């Protein structure tokens, strides 16, 4: 249930400290929707929370072009993992001034530096992204900065349908969207799914629309 998730998220921050909750899962699982819903619910109830997405640490297209990796955008090596780790450390340690983090603009498919201000009063940072449980460097160090990691599951057919629709919404043709899902997103999804058993909590959203009901199928 959504109320259960909100209560668990709230409970991660003890005393005057700041907790960082990671939400992971395959592309199209609903990570961003859940993260923003939690932030909205907590902040609306007077508990300062903010979302800092892993997607803000995408390498820009200019960097991907130099690396010859633009056709694999979204793969684990197309992110600035070390920059992400450094920012998470700052979010845990620097509590007396705002810490600025990048966001990701889907309209232009680019990271935007300094978009998110994490104020000193923020008790909970929620960060969502694909590779939070990866065992390749530097991701174990990233996992160590996270108070908990929740894994979002969803029916694969539904997830792929959502992904294709999202790619079309942001400019791909239907055929190009289906090809990208098959050749790029699904390769990433297999790597991500292999890490699900390392999560502190698994949440099945297959039968749930976050905006219209509770998150059912919670386990872990």
Features:
220 residues, alpha/beta, Rossmann fold, 7 helices, disordered C terminus
Describe the structure.
- The protein is α/β, with parallel strands linked by helices and 220 residues long.
- The protein has one domain: P-loop containing nucleotide triphosphate hydrolases (Rossmann fold, 3-Layer(aba) Sandwich), CATH 3.40.50.300.
- The chain contains 7 helices and 8 strands, in the order αβαβααβββαβααββ.
- It has a 6-stranded mixed sheet, sandwiched between helices.
- Helix 6 crosses helix 7.
- The longest helix is centred in the last third of the chain and has 20 residues, at 174-193.
- The two termini are 13 Å apart.
Write a short abstract of this structure.
With 220 residues, the chain is of the alpha/beta class. It has helices at residues 2-11, 31-44, 61-67, 81-93, 139-145, 156-169, 174-193; strands at 19-25, 49-51, 99-105, 110-118, 124-128, 148-153, 201-204, 218-219.
